[in-house]
Amino acid sequence: MEILIISGLSGGGKSRAASFLEDIGYYIVDNLPAEMMVKFADFCAASSGRYDRVALVYDVRAAEPFDLLINTLERLKTSGVNCRMLFLEAATRTIINRYKETRRVHPLSAKGLNIEQAVQMEREMMRPVRDHADFIIDSTSFSTAKLRSELLNLFGDQKDRTGLSVNVLSFGFKHGIPIEADLVFDVRFMPNPYYVAELKNKTGLDKDVRDFVFNFQQTHSFMEQLQQMLSFLLPLYAEEGKTMLVIAIGCTGGHHRSVAVAHEVADHIMKEGYPVTENHRDISR
Questions:
Q1: Closest to 245 in 3D by CA, of 178, 140, 164
Q2: Domain that holds residue 243
Q3: Which of 55, 125, 240, 258 is the most exposed place for a label (fewest CB within 10 A)?
Q4: Structure confidence by residue, pLDDT tens digits, 118-151
């Protein structure tokens, strides 16, 4: 029997991690008090295999001394249960942004703290738990797909893997390189539609912008070599067990050249037989 305790900071990704683990066969129990974990483990052991893989979500909401969790973790390990702990965290600014996006209330906000103070207090409170974790994931730069891939690498079996999916992402260098990118290609060498009056306020998804970008030989030469490289690389990534590949295509502002090229790259990858999503991060900036 395997018990995985999922702990970490509020906003660090525990709920999303629990959902992914549930998808690969873990039975999830949220916010189970530490004192009940040993009895729950006994229940699972007597279930004739029904609850062989269990994940227990435990965080600051438990409102009990964290040494109870640490002692329980050691008791389970000494009893022969395969018990491990996963701790999820993220940078303070990232957690604050996540709370702003979801409009949820931080569990420590009731103490009269602003959200930054609440995050810092929780980080200190959870430090002893973090120190006892078997696995620590910093989800600051993780997309949903990246978190799923990391959890599959740690806890998944071969049957849980569904093959390689590709996300093609356009962006503008002046807004920063996407931190989740696996491969980054710079297309700023191409003639820029921004300086053509009738194209300036359009995007690479418009036909006349696309036609402008692909009206130059250097664009066609680049695409031929890029597509050849991707046709070579994608099977190797899949063979290695990678489940998500992020390909970022960048130009200056992320409106014209990168968008047009990313669209063509996504079309090529789809024709190669891989699931692909297409996103344009800075197209509306």
A1: 164
A2: 165-280
A3: 240
A4: 999 999 999 999 999 999 999 998 888 788 878 8
